[in-house]
Amino acid sequence: MSKAEISCVHLVYFSPSGSTEKIVRKIASAIKGPEVKIHNLLPFAARQKQYSFGKNDLVIYGSLSAGMLFTKAEELFNCLEGNETPFIGVISYGNAYYGVALTEMKERAENRGFKVCALGAFIAQHTMAPEVGTGRPDAKDEEIMLDFGRRAYEKVLAGDYNLENQPGTNWSSSEEFNKYIAFRETNKDPYCFPLEFRAKKISDDCIKCYTCVKNCPTNAIDIENKTFDLEACIGCYGCINRCPQHAINSTSPEVTGFMQGFIDAFKNDRLEPDMFF
Ligand SMILES: Cc1cc2nc3c(=O)[nH]c(=O)nc-3n(C[C@H](O)[C@H](O)[C@H](O)COP(=O)(O)O)c2cc1C
Ligand code: SF4
Ligand code: SF4
Fold this sequence. Notes:
two-stranded parallel sheet
């Protein structure tokens, strides 16, 4: 193990509703000294560029887990290139399960030339169901994030790229929902939210501020005509949660039905972060 010198910490994240970004920033705040650069992969244009990192860079990467590592995960990693670059990987999930998200993240990061030093799964309020994981991450989570950041950075500086404990499949407390995880374990194609779940409408409360348009990862919103390209939409819920007027709402009865079962199954648990060093 040879010691590493880090000159720049890069915060790289895909965070439709903002929780993953907060988590990545909190973890990074435990690291003092190096310059910090931000790479927000949410806008479509940001993912058309290539980001190359060297041995003296540290990447702290965060993505939401939509049950699994989010759809387009392959695409997210395709714009990143490590050159033996130390990597701290984080997923946020909505207090239910993260399935194979961390194992997929590790595999993809290694395939792109990164050296994974630490991985963490942190809980955030569910962006489709605020009744689940309400108020997370909270002060207790933030303490854990700071500790995670400190410990992970110590490993990076020591040049220690061995993960003593490896992430496995994270099963949920519900047999009903575990079938989705079991499916994902064997099906490695990029996960995509079903088309019928993506239906939305924009109400007359819209003030054309363009917040939703600028933050839509797939340029799926036509605000002039108040329509969505549902084939392009990945169902990330960013537009719904970021609209200052609350003018965007799901119109999918399938989502309502599915989420009621989800809320009943997971609203009473309090899950804690999982960390792998
Ligand atoms: C389409 C979709 C599916 C999701 N599926 C799950 C899930 O299966 N399990 C879970 O715990 N959270 C799930 N979530 C919740 C998000 O992972 C969680 O709220 C996340 O922290 C949001 O991150 P963001 O604020 O950075 O967008 C899902 C969210 C979306 C939008
Ligand atoms: S964020 Fe809301 S108010 Fe702003 S343009 Fe989109 S729908 Fe309209
Ligand atoms: S239109 Fe779809 S992809 Fe775009 S922000 Fe809204 S939910 Fe996400």
